[in-house]
Known about the structure:
Two copies of one chain form a homodimer.
Chain A: H1 17-29, E1 35-42, E2 52-53, H2 57-66, H3 71-80, H4 85-92, E3 99-103, E4 108-109, E5 116-121, H5 122-127, H6 129-152, E6 157-160, H7 169-181, E7 186-187, H8 190-196, H9 206-211, H10 215-225, E8 231-233, H11 239-255, E9 262-265, H12 270-283, E10 290-294, H13 299-307, E11 314-317, H14 319-323, E12 332-340, E13 346-348, E14 363-370, E15 373-381, E16 389-390, E17 392-397, E18 400-401, H15 408-421, E19 436-439, H16 441-452
Parallel strand pairs in A: 6-7, 6-11, 8-9, 9-10, 10-11, 15-19
Antiparallel strand pairs in A: 1-5, 1-12, 2-4, 3-5, 3-17, 12-13, 14-15, 14-16, 17-18
Helix pairs in contact in A: 2-6, 3-4, 6-7, 6-13, 7-8, 10-11, 11-12
Amino acid sequence: MRHGLVTPDQLALITDLYELTMAAGYYSQGTADRTATFDLSVRSLPPQRGYLVAAGLEQALAYLRDLRFTSEVLEQLEGTGHFRDDFLDYLSGFRFSGSVDAIAEGTVVFPPTPLATVTAPIIEAQLVETYLLTIITFQTMIATKAARVVGASAGRQVVDFSPRRDHGPQAGLLAARAAVIGGCIGTSNVLAGQRFDIPTYGTMAHSFIMFYPDEEEAFLAFAASYPGDPTLLIDTYDTLEGARAAVRVSRALEEEGRKLAAVRLDSGDLVTLSREVRAILDEAGLHDTKIFASGGLDEFRIHRMLLAGAAVDGFGVGTELGTSGDAPSLDSTYKLVACVDASGEEVPVIKLSTGKITLPGRKQAWRQRNGGSFLRDIIGLADEDLDGEPLIEPVMRDGIPLHRAPTLLDVQRRAAEQLAATPESVRALERPSPYAVDISPRLRQLVDSLRDR
Amino acid sequence: MRHGLVTPDQLALITDLYELTMAAGYYSQGTADRTATFDLSVRSLPPQRGYLVAAGLEQALAYLRDLRFTSEVLEQLEGTGHFRDDFLDYLSGFRFSGSVDAIAEGTVVFPPTPLATVTAPIIEAQLVETYLLTIITFQTMIATKAARVVGASAGRQVVDFSPRRDHGPQAGLLAARAAVIGGCIGTSNVLAGQRFDIPTYGTMAHSFIMFYPDEEEAFLAFAASYPGDPTLLIDTYDTLEGARAAVRVSRALEEEGRKLAAVRLDSGDLVTLSREVRAILDEAGLHDTKIFASGGLDEFRIHRMLLAGAAVDGFGVGTELGTSGDAPSLDSTYKLVACVDASGEEVPVIKLSTGKITLPGRKQAWRQRNGGSFLRDIIGLADEDLDGEPLIEPVMRDGIPLHRAPTLLDVQRRAAEQLAATPESVRALERPSPYAVDISPRLRQLVDSLRDR
């Protein structure tokens, strides 16, 4: 019986085989040490997305810092028969010695601006492709989805409820982190709470209520065991009866100096039920008791519920948040954009296959504002000096991270500021307006001259 | 800089908080030891799916066998403020002592037949909900998607190319496992190759070709470093020129007693290009050199390509396979279906909230065949004796797995046999026919009598 967990000593195995066969190629040709630059970008936005929220850089840098080939890993690679001994010897001393320039987590980004740029001996820069793509792409996708859900919730609290529907346990851990970057106030995921200091939320399932002879007895049992102010799930049988039972339980709590924090609705017509439950709570004087809704929610449904006047103070969003259900992948790439040639000179490189032009050379992106609001971005060559705020900054040199990772709350704050500065039409849930991303004249010239060649 | 990995000592933290708050509730009420039975089921099939391929049981059982609360984990739980000390003491001695009955991995399953049934003291059965849901649901979803892709490939080889687009590294590991269950011959995922003895495949990226002054030099460099028969990526510049360069490289390989195993196409009109490349290879006498296609493939595109006469021998499928792109979640549930009441008697339990009826009691499902082909399933009570092959079998007693896990190849073989016995109309890529899943008269009576109560 084998677990499906990934342990830290196996970081080096988390890769497509071809990264290793290519590395072996560079090694055997004596070209391994020639410096190369790769851009990690998202080629284009999925339908209904007007922007991305960058996320995942902390885990990317931790990987680059710690990547080693242990003797156990080397034995396993030897066993595949794909590699020669001298290459495996080389790997035994491997560490990533390169540079990374990247866009800070929590930044609102518009394709095709690179999220990260890796410059290193080509053998190193190539080897890290798969891990960087999966760890940055997934978190960026979920932070973006979370920002949409939180935006639709119009100031109400959103909690990540996705662990059971995420693509395995680690996806749940990373999804919770990204959800908080996108604006969620917490998660039901206990591991994410522990690993990333995220507030955890939870109450009970229907099974808990069903286990007791009646709902009120179940509520009392829960309240007796829970040390703080409990939230009660009131829709197992009849939601309005559940609300009345919760009111009665709140009386018992008050006698102990506690209160009913919230009730949760997980099924039925959430608009009507929430208003009726609000009336029951208010009539009982429980104006501070919140109503929390969950069950198949996403940004579109939340938006419609609030338009229809739902009396909901917070949302638990699971499946659609944790899988980015309407857009469960991003078209991310890791492309060679410059390399040192045999004569020792750095040359920009372009890929021209059908419909997939890459932007060559080491680049920077500048963001221009109109007042406080984002106006347009310009992608240019790194040695240009264009108007606006540069978005890509040095984060690793010689394989060493340059800064401590910001706290998750700082990243969340940055994302909130960035989203507030993003034009409302670009943030629209449906048919968002395109945001202007221009190419500088010098970069355009370079593309043209390489294409002509 | 924190990694986003999940280590084996943290198994107990991979849960929604509410599993723990409910467990604390049962504990404080003295009801923790009353036996309960939960069904893990998928409520309904997503659009375009006519069946599911069960997967993930091995990891589920490994989790139940190994689940412990280490002192470090207990400290972390204490720090959340959600739990009383006596409950944390209880957890320090926790081990799962219950029973699991389940459908074997690789079995074709039709909702709402339970994939697994857990019977244990309710505190234990409840605690394991989140992990079981995520580990079984995700793998079942991907094994199902893989079966569709492999089916569309009509006997050609399919390799999992998904690591970069999976929802993080562990999702990639689990996706590769599930993909093989669904019929893939291997994966590009090196870790999955090592962990689950899956053949690994890989050649080179466009960046490798672009790094060298010309394509043929890149091919030669790769061939020089690769110990076996190489596959060459021929579409970086002009695919037909690439094919001719690959033919020239094959001559050099032949002199060393090697051969060109395959060429890979990753862009452009794969139907036309594959036929033209086949002609170039055949003209050069390279009838054994395979043509491998990749790039944005899924079952629908593969089906159309083959209908149009593509000359492709194998497919690399990434994004859509590893994320089940058109259906990235399954509507799975873990529902209380029976419990021992205060008088010590086991009673069946039903949930009646809007549109979400559960099937009460301990159950079995029987599969009836027409000749070799699956005809219909009947879900009944476990103590019934109905016609057909029972699908749910004992896999764990007293917290101990009853059998060694079957090899992945055995599971793959089972899935292939099961799929071959599934009516073609049920396996259709679009608008599959519904498969008959009946409820036994006794189970129907039980539902009715509980609903009336």
